[in-house]
Structure formats: C-alpha cells, structure tokens
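Hi again,

Forgot to attach this to my earlier email, sorry! This is the prediction with S-adenosyl-L-homocysteine bound. I've pasted everything inline since the attachment limit keeps bouncing my files.
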Amino acid sequence: MLPREMEECLKKIGEPAFRARQVFKWLASGATSFEDMTNIARKLRKKLSESFYITVPKILRKQVSAQDGTIKYLWELRDGNAVESVLMSYEYGNTVCVSSQVGCKMGCAFCASTIGGHVRNLEPSEILDQVIFSQLDSRRRISNIVMMGIGEPLDNFDNVIRFLELVNHPDGLNIGMRHITLSTCGIAERIDKLASYNLQLTLSVSLHAPDDETRSKIMPVNKSNNISKLLEACKRYHEKTGRRVSFEYALIKGVNDGDRHLRLLAEKMRQVSGHVNLIPLNEVEGSRFKPGNVNKFAKGLSELGVNVTVRRRLGADIDAACGQLRKKERSPSNPGKGMV
Ligand code: SAH
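Structure tokens for the complex follow:
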C-alpha cells in the first residue's frame, strides 16, 4: 500500500492520517510486525495487527559468489512459491536484480527462467520485499535496481508500476527512477503504455538479433512483435521520455554473431540512437547454445560507430548470471546446497 491508501484505511478505523507515514517508513526499513513500530502507541499497534498483516519473505537459501561477492537469494513467498534475486556490488554502489513473476511465459530459447513455465505474477509487495530484505540481510545499501530477474515485467504491468511507485517514494526507499532499469523481451504495445507514464527509468530491450528470421527462432515474442514494430515503439519511447533505450544482445555462437548480424545491428542502432549492451551468453543446463566472442563483436560494433558496452559476468559460479535464474520448487533439497 502507498501512504495515501494507508491514510484511507487508518481513517476508516478512526485514526489520524499522519500515522500512515510512520507505518510506511517502518515497512520500508524492514519492520516485520506492528510491534516493532515503537513510535506508535501500543494500543494502535495492537489495533493495526488485528486489521492488517505484513508480508515477510523468508530466505530459503543464500549463496555468496567466491569470485566477486555477488549474493543470490532464494525467497519463499507466502504461498510456498519461490523466486530469486541477485545483489551485485560495483564501485558506484550496490545493485539488486529483482524478479517480477514466478516463472515466465515468454519462452526465450536460451533462458532458464522460462523452463517450467509461468506460475503467477508477483504482487508489488513481493517485488519490493526483494529490495528491502536483501538490503537488510546483506547490510549493503542498495542504490540501484534492475528488473532483470525471473519474469517479464511488462507482462505484469500494473504490479510493476505500483512497485516502482513504492520503491521510489520519498518516505520509502526513495530510489530514484534514474537508478532503475526495466528490461523487457519487447512487447511493443506495453512499451507505449510505459512511455505514457513518462518515468525517467532506463528501458532496456532484449533484442538478441537484428533480423526477424534469427530473432523469431530464439524469441517467440518476435512473432507478434517483429523488429520493426518493436523499434518503432522504442523510438516513440525515446521521443516521449527523452531517455535513450538500451538494447541487450546475448552473443550466441553460430546464431546471432555473424558479420551480417553485426552490420545489420549497427544499422538498426543508428535508426533508434540505441546503445548496445553485449552479454556474454551464460550457460544454462541442458541448453545447446554456446557463447560467441563478445570482445570481437564489441570491437566490430564500435568500429561501425555504435555505442557499446559489455556486461560483466557477476555471480556465474553460483548460477546468478543473466538468464540463469529459474523458478525453484520449494523442496527439501533446495535449502541445503551452498547455504551460508
Ligand atoms: N524478461 C525480461 C527480463 C529478463 S532480463 C527480458 O527478457 O528482458 C535478463 C536478461 O538476460 C535478458 O536480456 C535476457 O534475454 C538475458 N538472458 C537470458 N538468458 C541468457 C543467457 N543464457 N545468457 C545471457 N543472457 C541471457
């Protein structure tokens, strides 16, 4: 709930509106019960706990990368489902990568998140809790958020918008929109809808191929959102929000790493003033795809005048890198391995 909604609820139980701000602040700091809210009178705390509940995710498993200190959390949700998030530390601060759905229905051929299908959308609070509780547990202050975990954020549109409002709220975690990146597999009509909110977040589009033939083979979403439709929406997004769109491109050997892909990608990027974020393909168990040569491809793009960066591979030793997060069953074998 946002403070303005809490105010309404408090009024209904005969309490002053200003209490909402106090409760909201407590929740953002990770309070797990009304009893913790010590600046609120005991009588009201009791009344609140009789009328409302606070969701508290449980850490089912926590793994820390020996290579780079990246932490991967597996959270147990209220209904027994479980999702992962990843906390990465950079020189400029800590970034958490959050999941937006339990599973994913987009079916990208190279991605582990889609294995096992889609179970349900996450509630706004379940997305927010990933930020609050990874900050609390790790004692690392989170300054940036990437919506790049399990799920397709634009397929859970309303809850994602509400999450953004919650996490951005000045009385909450107060994380600025410019510190948030939302990644999508490219649903054109939803990109337009997002543009209408005119948020200052960074939109990142998983392109992965510059031609429809290649893209449709690896990303089913391309069949209803082909590249020209998608890039048109990205152009409109840029025009409306003034924010340049960034394009993710996971390099797959023999699939999208040819010379013709390189040249076509450069051409498309000129059309949309896009920036390319090359991702070294990460291993997914049972997948036939192998990584392409990222540095060579990056050099080629750069020589053609494309603005390009290569994404670091954080947390690969704990399967926390891009595309490696997957829906987990809550099973007795889960919590054990690698737990700290
Ligand atoms: N559904 C959203 C959010 C996921 S973000 C989206 O598709 O953008 C995760 C990013 O990692 C996406 O760009 C995704 O395409 C990419 N990815 C998926 N599998 C990968 C793999 N095996 N190696 C590298 N990147 C991968």
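The two ends are 33 Å apart (CA to CA). The longest helix spans residues 124-138.

That should be everything now.

G.
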